[in-house]
Amino acid sequence: MKLENTKYLIVAVLLAGLLYSCASIGHPTGGEKDVDPPLFIASNPAPNSTNYNKQKIELQFNEYIVLKNQATKVVVSPAQKDNPIIRANGKKIDIELKDTLRLNTTYVIDFSDAIQDNNENNPIENFSFAFATGDTIDTLQVSGIVLNARDLEPQKEMFVGLHSCLDDSAFRTLPLERIARTNDLGQFTIRNIKPGRYHIFALKDVDRDYKFARTEDLAFLDEIIVPTTTEIETMDTTFTSQMVTDTIVKAKHTVFLPNDILLSSFNEEFKSLYLVSNERTERHRFTITFSAPSDSLPTLEILKPEGYDNSKKWYALDNSIHNDTLNYWITDSALIMSDSIQVNMRYLHTDSLDNITFTNDTLYVNLKNAKYIKKREEQERKKREEEAKKRRESGDTANIDTVPPAKLINFNLTVMASVDVYAPLRFKSETPIDSIAPDCARLSMKVDTVWNDLGVVKLVKDSIKGLQYNIEYDWEPGAEYSITIDSLSIFDIYGAHNASLKKEFKVKSLDEYSNLFMKVNVTDSAFVELLSTNDNPVLVAPVKNGSVDFFNVRPGEYYARIVLDRNNNGKWDTGNYETHLQPEEVYYYPKKLALKQNWDVEQSWNIYELPIDEQKPNDIKKNKPKDFKPSSSNDEEEEEPEFGTNFGGNNSYTGNKYQDSRNNFNPNRQLRQR
Questions:
Q1: Residue 663 confidence (pLDDT)
Q2: DSSP conformation letters of 512-564
Q3: How far apart are CA 264 and CA 152, in angstroms?
Q4: Mean pLDDT of the chain
Q5: Which residues, other chains included, contact 93 with Cβ-Cβ below 8 Å and sequence gap of 6+?
Q6: How far is the C-alpha of 192 from the C-alpha of 402, rounded, in Å?
Q7: Residue 237 CB burial class (10 angstroms; 0-12, 13-18, ≥19)
Q8: Which strand (E) or helix (H) includes residue 85?
Q9: How far apart are CA 604 and CA 519, in angstroms?
Q10: I want to staple 193 with a disulfide (CB 3.0 to 4.6 A). Which of 140, 189, 431, 483 is the partner?
Q11: pLDDT of residue 397
């Protein structure tokens, strides 16, 4: 009887539990989120094996893994001519090297952070695997960072490589011997190097031959590097399970040097000069585009229509400042109505030996969409004829004309109601201007309620934008002005004229601006660029006697960078590998500049106070740390993760800052060596 009662009790408890679980409304949590990366557990061959001569390698992990962006992250060193096959397979990675293995050579497969777990995409940071085909394995390392020389932007996915051949020609003629890729923060570690003396380079290797071509981005260090190691002693702390200090012990660690190399990348801005296109989308205009700037304009000769008198001036030219975009406005009415024009053009181009020489081409300047344009012209003609017919039938025969009326020039003021105190008035035309009457424009200023005539002002063609005209004037802050341009005073190359124009506008008052005054520890020729939140220059001012002044700046948030202008030409200049010329040096003010209306801001700036890689604010970096959060003016900069970890867990990055590729100095010093 007791046994039977016990059975009933067990059943009752189970039913009660089942009913309770059915009545409880909720969602399964699935446990805590996995935040741990996969763990490497085994391989064939073993890590750092010697005398391994097979081309297949297998890596095993503790969970299912995937490879992300392996084409841009995984790199095999020495560089491979034939791409290896690397694929994830469950909890394994299978690798098959296609190149014949070299004798007595250390091989490294650097995965960066491409290995991730399958569920949460947690990456293994800086994972690499090494083996050797000989009796010994090379173990030295060098580390550093690659920054763009112009804007200190970390350069990701660039190859960084070594040459033991110290001839300058090696970078152009021989593949890099030992290579690595930069990570998303521009950092790199070249692993498993044999002892020796090396030149180091960075390369945006477009053609994947591991050699420098003139059009590719590059960086180079003028000094020879010698990989070494040193032992450091640290005090390591162990903790109990309750995170209480257990023991403090001394430990020795190996540090690989140099681990502070700064490579400043640049492009020599060499571009092959060639004809890109010619296009005629309108009857009266065609555009010729070149691949690069040129210091010479082409010459044109009409071949068709045959027998054309080339002594006549048949076009007006509107060219870009570098002569790489040329707009030809046709002025001969016969050519305008011709759907096809054949032109012989003599122009500069780059030949097969990279020399700039003259060449000749026959251009077929055919009207694009000619059928559509003819149809539209015919529709306009019929419309004019129908309007003239209706007027004749109604008895209104005055001024009947089936010829298109004269067109007005679209010549307008580009600014609206408010003008900056330092800015000219800007006008833009849609067609090239042939003539402007010298007294066509008059300026007036409002005093109380009365407009006072200030006299004639001159319209001057802009030196860069050929269809823009400016009126320069010393505006009175806060004043109201009126500009008047008489009709029939401006004619374009087609005989069209302007309509009368009258615009009123107000100049901003000084209390609508902010002024910025900076003291910098620079005595060389230099200039400072005030930057927008997009890292684009807004204003530029020269450094004079250690000071730079920005007057009448619109309120807002800005950043600043300084260019050490070694040739004093007022612009940043790139480098050149053949002449061992490094690009001009750039430094960033490390904080945001908040400029408020009617405020003067004074700021001191020691351009060497912070290491180069810490200067550019994360807010305006394109390649930001993964855990970056936009900062307020009081926020501290986010710390960047360490890098350089090899398979054994040694970390070659110790916090030392980067050896500068331009002057071989450590930016952690207060003063630069000259």
A1: 39
A2: G-EEEEEEES--SSEEEEEE-TTS-EEEEEE-BTTEEEEEEEPSEEEEEEEEE
A3: 8
A4: 85
A5: 58, 59, 61, 65, 67, 86, 87, 115
A6: 85
A7: exposed
A8: strand 85-89
A9: 5
A10: 140
A11: 59
